[in-house]
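Slide 14.
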Amino acid sequence: MNMIATPPEMISQGHGLLEAPVFDQDHGLLYTDAEIGGVWQFDALRTPKLLVPHRRGIGGMAIHASGGVIVSGRNVAYKRFIDEAPDEPTIVLLENDPANGHQGYNDLVTDHCGRLYVGSLAFVPMLGQLESTEAGSLYLIDLNGEIKEVAQGIRLSNGLGFSPDGTQLYHSDSIAHSVYVYDVAPDGALAGRRNFVTPAEGMPDGLAVAQDGSVWVALVHAGLVVAYDARGKEICRIRLSTPMVTSVCFGDADYKSLYIVSGAQGAPEALGGCIYRIRTNVPGLARPLARVALQSVPHK
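Slide 15: predicted structure.
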């Protein structure tokens, strides 16, 4: 089956390091700029609109059922959009813990219940240190706000996505050059981690899952997005004009558009970070809204 209906179209350029794309029928395409800062909305006029200012280093984002977004970075926090609640304070859901090797947090994903999974970082990727042998963990933020460690030994936690039936969780470890897959228990616990794919090029970064179970992985530094079937066999590849392809999400009314974001590294200076859109022949899975309790945790 041909998975691609159209060639990739560059729909925006001149950004910094784009990350964490998520599509919602009410908001359209949202994404972050880890270098410049902020959560941005890409509207129907293809004009970026700032929704959450200042915050840099966001590698993961989820829209909350009450409005606003949960974002990663130095901590995991809930932020309202500036045009809706300009003075509402940040609610920290999961604090960092540098003394115990958790410098911050990167990609995150919601399950069908609205629980949140987020990977911790043992170092700050934007400062380099990719040769680090330290490892982070994967955490579950339950609906009542309870925090549970559900996996360990992740050297650089990145893309997360659930299988269509919710019984498997895919998880990129960029330094290990591996996309893992876990079995998911009804209470959210994870077990049986194993290698799903080891891409031949680049490092696996953000990922998205389609309704047919295929897993679409951004391969940073390779300028590629590669789709794999549920057995880990490559079934499609998309070559982009910028090498630092960081993440992907499905969107539009039918979820048959794949949005791809990139950073500026290795690209012509005039391009910077870019947003691409490509039509596919398979619909993606919509990301469920986060429904975790919005209560602050004590600062360490």
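Speaker note: DSSP finds no helices and 24 strands in the chain.
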